[in-house]
Fold this protein.
Amino acid sequence: MEEPIQITSDSQPSPLLEPLLGIHSAPSLSWLADSTATAAERGLGALYSVFYLTDASGRLSAVTPASGPQKGALARLSQALDFEIGAVKIDPDERPLLTAALTDGRTLNIDSLSDALPQPLDDDRVRSLGRELGVASAIVAPFHRNGESSGLLLLLVGDGQTGSLGYAEALARHVAVALTNLREREAGRKRGEVDAVRWVYDERRFSEELGQESRRAKRHERPLSVLFVRILNLEELQARYGRFLAERVLRQVAGRLDDAMRDTDFLGASASDGFGAILVEADQDGADMAQERLLAGLHEMKLPHTDLPNLEIQLGCATATLPQDGETADELIVAAESRLQQRTIIQQDAASAV
C-alpha cells in the first residue's frame, strides 16, 4: 500500500478565510476584482476598494468589477470624488508612495488621500469625503509575487482601520497568486492543449506525444517507460473540503511532479484524478528510480495559502516499459493502467480490513 502523503498548511488571518474562496475560484479578471472588493469589505472593513493592474505603459489601470453592487459602490465613490475613479489611470511616477510600494512590494498606509488617488484632492474635497463616506485614509497593497508587482489594491478606510495593514498585505498576496493562475489558465486555453484544472498538457496531447516517443524508441531499439499516478482519495477530499481545494491539490501535485522530472520527460493529465509521465530512455529500473524520485518530492509538499488542518492524500502509481510490456503506446497505457487498477484494489481491500 502506498504511503500517505502529508500536506501541511500555512496559517492566514481568519477574517479572510471565507472571502478568499471567491478570489481563488474567480473565472475572469472582472470577477477577481469583484471578489477582492468583497473580501476587503467583509474581511478588512474597507469602505471602498479599487483593483488596479499595471498596463503595458507602466501606468495603473482599474479593473471594473463584475457585479452590480460593486459597480454601484465605485459609482458612489466617483460621485463623491467628482471624477470617475475607474476610468483615470495612475502614473506611478507622479505618486512616489505608490512607486515605493510597487517596487518593494510593501503594503502602506497613506494618510493623505491626494497621494493615493488618481487625481489630487483639495482640502475641502478631502473633508467632504470624510463627511459623506467616512473615508479617513488609504491602504495600498501591491500584488507582489516572484519579485515583481503586477498591480495594487487601493483600499479607502475609516478611522481606526489602519490596523488592517497586515490583513491587507495577506489579501494582496492571495490576489497575486490568483492573478498568476488566472493568466496561466487563460494562456493554456488559448493554446488548446492544457488541462484547465491541472494546468499540464491534456490527455490528447499526452497521447500524441507518447505515440511519437514509442515509435521513435521502437525504431532505434531504445527503452521507454510510462508512469501513471492517481490521487486515490480525491473524491473524499472534494466531499469534505469542496471542489476548490480538490483542484488545488491536483495542481500542487502537478507542480511537484513537473519539478522532479527530467527535461527530456513529458507530463500530462490522465483520467480525472491523475497524471501520466513519459520517461524517455528509461528501462524498468529507470522507471522504478523515477517513481521513487517523484514520490519523494511529493512527501515534502505543502499546500500554501490555506488555514485548514493537515491533509492526507493517498497516491497510486504504476509503470510500464517498452518493449517488455508492449510495443505500442496503447499497449503501454493498458499495461500501466491494469497494474494501477490492481494496486488500487489491493489498497482498498487492505484499508477495509483495518
